Amino acid sequence: MKTETPINFWGIGAQKAGTSWLYYNLSKTPGFAIPPVKEFHYFDRDVSYPSPNYLSITKAKDRIGDMSYLFKGVKSVSAAVLRGQMKKARFYTKWHFLDYNDEWYKSLFDIYEGVKGEITPAYSMLSKEDVSRMYAVAPEAKLIFMLRNPVDRAWSNFRHVKKRIKGFSLDDVEEKEIIAFMQSEGQELRSNYARTIENFTSVFPKEQLLIGFYDAIIDNPKRLLDEVIQFIDPSTESSINEKQSEDDKDSSIKKVVNKSIELDCPPKVLEILKEKYHDMIFDLANQYGGYFNKWYIETYGKPSNNHEDRLFPTIHID
């Protein structure tokens, strides 16, 4: 089992593409030590990124002056102590009450033993400069990039955002508001898979990046999870705890985590999304086939020039 680096892997996205499912299942995997916070948002903490920037205030003294922040920090630490979860208490003490820098970030993982990492979908938006910062922290870390048909991903993200609004109805939203959401900077960056792949493979060796497919969570979840785990740490034998029953395996591993509300995409919005992502899906389908080709056929009703139709849960970038 790897112990020479503080961080063994990063999940870098994409948002609404199975990262919560991955976090949930890796947290249950023997030999893996996953911190209690799923999304650190450390490398995207600069306010220039359209993402949660709650780590943008670097100095602890500047944060604890906010009584609501102080209360939240004390509550997190106290709750962990009362439950006898001392590692979690140490984590939250560092998380809330120390200055943010690379040494602080690495120290969050020093608390744990085993295969360590974190999953922040917003890392898919990072510039090459900030990807280089990640490389400086853990140059041997493996990268997991979960992908979903970008048309479906964008609509799922809209539904996810709106489900937080009590009593939300699509009838209350004008079509132009939905279109503006789909054309926002955050959506553009989160769905630009080609940009993400280029930015990360220009810094990290290509063999350290694994592409996983959201579709495989339904089609072949155990193989998907096993391939991710073996990629991160080959010494880990199985993604499933042998004490679990066969029924438990099937029901838990196929569960979609953090599911969005069900809403039909308005036809005009759907057409805009299909046009927006056509070239990227087509290029990926031509190059790799598989699930990319499945996306192209399902979205546009015709195959790409690549007739590789085997659906591998994960692939490597050439």
TrEMBL record:
The keyword Transferase belongs to this UniProt entry's keyword annotation: yes
GO molecular function: sulfotransferase activity
Keywords linked to the UniProt accession: Glycoprotein, Transferase
Domain called Sulfotransferase: residue spans: 12-241
Keyword Glycoprotein: yes
Residue spans crossing the bilayer: none
Domain of life: Bacteria
Protein's recorded name: Sulfotransferase family protein
Organismal lineage: Bacteria, Pseudomonadati, Bacteroidota, Flavobacteriia, Flavobacteriales
